[in-house]
Amino acid sequence: MTAPRLEIDLDAIEHNTRILVDRLAPRGIRVTGVSKATLGSPGVAAAMLRGGAVGIGDSRVENLARLQDAGVATPLTLIRSPMLSQVEHVVRTAHRSLETETVVLEALSAAAARWHITHEVVLMVELGDLREGVDAADVVELARSASRLPGLELAGLGTNLACQSGVIPDQEKMDELSRLAERVESACGARLSIVSGGNSANLEWALSTPDVGRVDELRLGESILLGTEPLQRRPIDGLDTRAFTLVAEVIEAKVKPAQPWGGIAQAAFGEQDLRTGSGSIRQVILALGRQDVDPRGLTPPPGIGVLGMSSDHLVLDVGDHEVSVGDELRFELDYSALVRAATSPFVTAVERGGSEA
What we know:
- Keywords: Isomerase, Pyridoxal phosphate.
- This protein has 357 residues and is an alpha/beta fold.
- It has helices at residues 10-24, 42-50, 61-69, 87-93, 102-114, 139-148, 171-188, 203-208, 222-226, 335-343, and strands at residues 5-9, 30-34, 55-58, 76-78, 96-99, 119-125, 152-159, 194-196, 217-220, 244-257, 280-286, 298-299, 305-309, 314-317, 328-333, 348-352.
- The protein is elongated.
């Protein structure tokens, strides 16, 4: 089988989705599965839907189009504000999108009217993480404007935390979102169908608070895919943390000095080799590079250490392991490594399990 490859366990993804859906349902919170880390994989999206997700979100309209073309029948949400150059594509592909800018809302309205489509919008509020979001003081006016635009339906309000600055989605932040939702409803005279509290970083709050307020949706990616929570990267009890495995092939295996020799300057990516010790080591090189994966997010097999990585070579100290050219080594991944591997054209995705795989 070809390498490098990303092996994907669809049954694990379905399991993780179902566990989270079942835990959140008694609190009145629905789950939108986020497929962006897997390049909008239809197999992954289908596994999330089998697990109980009510829809699929992705930050790239191209990924949503892939799902649409594959016949994934579910509401599709663009979870990044559209580029003006893509509004036509957006209204024809996504059922709804997350929005912050008046000019984009106006462009979506015009595009939706041209195609005789109603496009739902969720207005995003800035609550401190300093990524996307309109100022809380301006959200009511933006909601009024959006609700008047033809071809658009003001579906809801949302926020995003912990992605840019690591700001924790706590009770104070979520209470503020609930209050803003009620202010928007009062100003616009209609009840919002979505109050989207955020992403996988919201799980600790959502599963422990006695009062979720108006929050009725979370957009979950990392927790479903990797079984971990993003705030501390801890495994979530009951979830499978091995839905993804990266497999790479050895192209060189030699005994080499433990330390380089000669004058030392910057390496290809400005980082120094992570070598320690003296004498000789068993060094192997894999056909895997920074074009394919984030080396900081790789966990090698026990007893093997990552020494460094260039564009196309991953260098390992294999310790006492007997490793030969042509052998394959398997790695666990964190979210950063998964995103890079899943979107590299040089890494083949191999999906296993799932009734529709």
